[in-house]
Structures are given as structure tokens and as C-alpha cells.
Write a structure and sequence with these properties.
The chain has 177 residues and is an alpha/beta fold. 42% of the residues lie in helices and 20% in strands. Strands 1, 2, 3, 4, 5 and 6 form a six-stranded parallel β-sheet that branches. Bound molecules: flavin mononucleotide (FMN). Flavin mononucleotide is lined by residues 23-28, 72-76, 107-112, 139, 141, 147, 151.
Length: 177
């Protein structure tokens, strides 16, 4: 008859990181994908979901334990499609995600600060906890042609996105947030 072990074996509750993004010319998408791949590699026990803003909603927010939002700055704001995601989800999530961790990626032509400010206001409403400063990548697109051209995010900036994705996954897995 095998004897039962006299101590409890510590079990980790599986965690989910939700990444919601929108991108017009590919920059934000590359940033979100880099963060996603690094998060998946950092802790295989953390499920990482990468959703386009048009596919995401309140149920996805409620089912996750931490969040990474990724947006271009458009007209000194988060992009319309990410805003639409928040508009559709806001009241279905309110008071049910208090204290959960989040971070933000912004892909901007030359600024990005207003998108970050707007996101902070939304996160305050949801009582989310920022675990890092907004990560802003500037593509330096200034002319209409450059702004509408496909973007290629540099390796250094992608590495910053990877580090943030990794930190979110590791922190969620360890339960330190
Ligand atoms: C309609 C429009 C408005 C924009 N407004 C801003 C802005 O307010 N501030 C800024 O820094 N960049 C602005 N940009 C530039 C984009 O943020 C930049 O091109 C960024 O790389 C887009 O990200 P994406 O490649 O993920 O679409 C704007 C671009 C468009 C198309």
C-alpha cells in the first residue's frame, strides 16, 4: 500500500495573458507579435492569446489574468478599432478585473503620448494596474506617403517589446503582480 506524502504539492493555477492590438500599416502588429512570442517562450504554463481588437470583447477580458494592449497613435489618440473594443467591453468588464496587471505598446509616427494618456484613463476606470511605463516606438513617418507605407519595426525596438511580453508572462506565472 503506497503511503501518501505528508506534504501538499504546490500547484500553480494556470494563467492567461491577453494581447489585444490594432494596426493599420503593420508596426503595432509586429510589436504585439514580438511580445506574444516572447511571452509564450518565457513561461509555457501561461496561455497567451493574441487577438485583433475587432475580434476581442468582454468575455476575453474576463477570461484573462493580465493584459497587453497595443495600438498605433492616430490623431493624438488610441486607434479607432482599439477604442471600439474598449467601448464594446467597458461595462461588461467594469468592477470584475480590478487590480489585474496590464501594459501598453504604442506605435507612433513621432509622439505617442496622448495615446498613452488615453489608455491610462481607460485603465483607471477598470482599476487595472500598470506594471510598466507605456512602451512607445516612433516610426518617424512624417509625410502622407511615409505614414501610409508599410512599417518595419527595428530589431532594438522589437527586443523591447519582447522584454515586456516576457516580463508580463513571468510575472503572471509567478503570481507577483
Ligand atoms: C490617420 C492617422 C493619424 C495619425 N496620427 C498620429 C499622431 O497623432 N501622432 C503620431 O505620433 N503619429 C500619428 N500617426 C502615425 C502613426 O502612428 C504611425 O504611422 C504608426 O506607425 C502607425 O502604426 P501601425 O503601423 O501599427 O498602423 C497617424 C497616422 C494616421 C494614418
Amino acid at each position: 500500500m503506497p503511503r501518501r506524502r505528508p506534504y501538499a504539492v504546490a500547484m500553480r493555477t494556470p494563467k492567461t495573458l491577453l494581447i489585444v492590438y490594432h494596426s493599420m500599416t503593420g508596426g503595432t502588429r509586429q510589436m504585439a507579435e514580438a511580445a506574444c512570442a516572447a511571452a509564450q517562450a518565457a513561461d509555457p504554463a501561461v496561455a497567451v492569446r493574441l487577438l485583433h481588437a475587432s475580434e476581442a470583447g468582454a468575455a476575453d477580458m474576463l477570461a484573462a489574468d493580465g493584459y497587453l494592449f497595443a495600438t498605433p497613435e492616430n490623431l493624438a489618440a488610441i486607434s479607432g478599432q482599439l477604442k471600439d473594443f474598449f467601448d464594446r467591453s467597458y461595462y461588461g468588464v467594469l468592477d470584475q478585473v480590478n487590480g489585474r496587471p496590464y501594459a501598453l505598446l504604442v506605435c507612433a509616427g513621432s509622439d505617442g503620448q496622448n495615446a498613452a494618456r488615453q489608455m491610462a484613463r481607460i485603465a483607471t476606470g477598470w482599476r487595472l494596474k500598470a506594471i510598466a511605463e507605456p512602451l512607445i516606438v516612433c516610426t518617424h513617418a512624417q509625410t502622407p506617403e511615409a505614414i501610409l507605407a508599410p512599417k518595419q519595426i527595428g530589431a532594438d525596438d522589437l527586443a523591447r517589446c519582447q522584454a515586456l511580453g516576457e516580463a508580463l508572462a513571468v510575472g503572471l506565472g509567478m503570481g507577483v503582480f
